[in-house]
Specification:
OB fold (Dihydrolipoamide Acetyltransferase, E2P), single chain, alpha+beta, about 110 residues, 5 strands, five-stranded mixed barrel, 2 helices
């Protein structure tokens, strides 16, 4: 009986000592939750059209970006589309088949 108790505590001690928390990201580093392609402006003339087309790598949802970070606006006017990007976004609304999003953080690859 004593052997089982000692063995139990040895195993628990081993398991707890091998656990570690994940390494924190360096200060100022942003972790991106989504990757995909910024296709370009949606120039179609329909009730639910507009914004910029974003195709997320792991989704079949039709995203339209309606708001970019303010510091990205000047870059947006000069990039050539399509462009691979990493981003974090907030869903704003839907209209027909489109989901409108606001970009919180963005990295052009």
């Amino acid at each position: 009986m004593n052997f089982r108790i000692v063995l139990f505590f040895v195993i628990i001690t081993f398991l707890l000592s091998s656990c570690s928390s994940p390494e924190p990201l360096p200060e100022g580093t942003i972790s991106y939750n989504n990757a995909g392609e910024l296709v370009g402006p949606d120039l179609a003339l329909c009730a639910c059209c507009g914004g910029h087309i974003f195709n997320q790598d792991d989704s079949n949802v039709d995203f339209r970006i309606i708001e970019f970070p303010s510091d990205f606006q000047s870059t947006l006017d000069t990039i050539n589309f399509p462009k691979p990007i990493n981003l974090n976004y907030t869903e704003i609304n839907t209209c027909g088949p489109y989901t409108y999003i606001r970009v919180d953080n963005l990295e052009v690859q």
